[in-house]
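Table S2 (continued). Query chain:
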Amino acid sequence: MKMTLTTFKFGSVALLGLLALGLPRAQADANDPRDNHGELKHGERKFLLKAAEGSTNEVALSRVAVERAQDPAVREFAQRMIRDHEALNMKVKDLAGRKNVDITEAVQKGMEKDVDSLRHKPAAEFDQAYLDDMLSGHKDAIELFEKAALDARDMEIATLASETLPTLFEHYRHVRRLDHRAEHEGDHDVSAPPPPQ
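Corresponding output:
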């Protein structure tokens, strides 16, 4: 699904407005029908698979960037991506195990997707290529986690999604600050709303 930056920002503002109330939507309504029992819906299983693939891919691409990035700030960002997304990967793995969802194939896809292509980029093009991957990946991740936070009927999935979103937004803001092409085009707007305190 393609999104304009305006659509992306609007959805982000709306979702973080809900999170700013202090509780994920799954916990905010006492009459919410979601719980931790029963079979997962197709969309919930798909969320776990896509979350596993996407977050694993962020780590795989960032490992290449730690080795090849020319800009120290980009290399530092890649190190943060590895740290944060490895932590997320553990949460997704644990939750998938409790829900009897096999994420093995999704993780393998994440380890391979676009890695060779990035690894063989010329040095002069590498940093921008990596940042492009991070921008695209985090837009997709935010859309995925927003939908799960709002729509998942399983409480644990909804909570994982809502609790992860502030970190994903911060990653998105960070990578846009590093995106020299966006800066050169005069796009300085990296202002997704701040995460709830």
